[in-house]
Design a protein that fits this description.
Layout: H1 5-24, H2 40-52, H3 54-72, H4 78-91, H5 103-125, H6 133-157, H7 161-171
Helix pairs in contact: 1-2, 1-3, 2-3, 2-4, 2-5, 3-4, 4-5, 5-6
Length: about 170
């Protein structure tokens, strides 16, 4: 399946805006002393991976991760790797009828993708530090993945165009 240029531009624009929001405003809703923040980029990458498939998702994940790495200035390539793998996992949730965009199915997609991305990211990020693996898993990976999934619930509240059209047609 080929991705047309309109979808390519739309996804690219959305991802650039989300990376900007992630890097500038998201720290205002950080939780705890561990600075746990939701990862809006993973939500977008999970959507693209589940909507367009594993390969397209991985490409968007990789290039978005590189952009995040360039802007953050540390561990160049680590976000690219973790976002690529997150999109690949989300690609397993691709269905013919776009079922993934509905409520709980999307949240399961985001949680799975976020879990993989955060596991990869924090495993490398804290390598060589005195923190043990269980602490990192419980304090960073699980909390970040859960918080990201809770924020993705906002997406499920947005009415779908098909649902709006059906309601309009049935009321006529």
């Amino acid at each position: 399946m080929n991705l047309d240029y309109k979808a390519l531009l739309k996804y690219t624009g959305i991802l650039i805006i989300i990376v900007f929001i992630q890097k500038t405003f998201i720290n205002y809703i950080a939780l705890s002393d561990f600075n746990i923040i939701p990862d809006l980029v993973i939500i977008a990458i999970a959507y693209i991976g589940a909507k367009e498939g594993k390969i397209h998702g991985m490409l968007f994940g990789f290039f978005t991760g590189l952009l995040v790495d360039i802007l953050s200035g540390s561990f160049f390539g680590l976000s690219a790797l973790s976002y690529s793998l997150a999109a690949f996992v989300a690609g397993f949730f691709k269905t013919e009828n776009d079922k993934f965009i509905y409520k709980w199915y999307f949240m399961i997609t985001v949680f799975s993708s976020s879990l993989v991305a955060n596991f990869i990211y924090f495993s490398f990020y804290f390598q060589g530090t005195p923190l043990n693996f269980t602490f990192v898993l419980l304090s960073y990976v699980m909390t970040s993945s859960t918080y990201t999934t809770l924020i993705s619930f906002i997406y499920t509240l947005i009415p779908r165009k098909k649902e709006i059209d059906r309601r309009f047609i049935s009321e006529s």
